[in-house]
Design a protein that fits this description.
The chain has about 100 residues and is α+β, with helices and mostly antiparallel strands. Helix content is about 30%, strand content about 35%. The chain contains two helices and eight strands, in the order αββββββαββ. The strands form two sheets. The protein has a six-stranded mixed beta sheet. Strands 5-6 form a two-stranded antiparallel sheet. Strand 2 and strand 3 form a beta hairpin. The longest helix is centred in the N-terminal third of the chain and has 21 residues. The protein is elongated. It starts with a helix and ends with a strand.
Length: about 100
């Protein structure tokens, strides 16, 4: 019985430590916008989780006109961030070793 309580305690402790490491909250106002869903923050490449924007060189058609939607996505993100402080919560890594995170300003 005592042994089971120790195992449960250790399991909960390991899960808590893992959660704290992977969900580490970091803040900064020195971000470089790469494209509409990727930034460099504190020397780390961060890809926003849960969204996908056009790639920087991607074009789209709007009213039969070709527009640079990848550049527009980057410009919009740059405008949204402005001089605001960025708060990100890490959620893991993607196949390209970028940090996946949910970020807000």
């Amino acid at each position: 019985m005592f042994s089971n309580k120790i195992k449960v305690f250790l399991l909960i402790s390991i899960c808590l430590i893992f959660f704290l490491i992977t969900s580490f909250d970091f803040k900064s106002n020195k971000a470089k916008v790469v494209d509409g869903d990727t930034i460099h923050l504190n020397g780390e490449k961060i890809r926003f989780s849960g969204i996908d924007t056009p790639e920087i060189k991607q074009t789209c058609k709007q009213n039969n006109e070709v527009i640079k939607c990848g550049i527009q996505a980057k410009e919009l993100l740059t405008k949204i961030i402005g001089n605001n402080k960025i708060n990100c919560i890490r959620e893991g890594k993607d196949q390209y070793k970028r940090t996946l995170a949910e970020c807000s300003v």
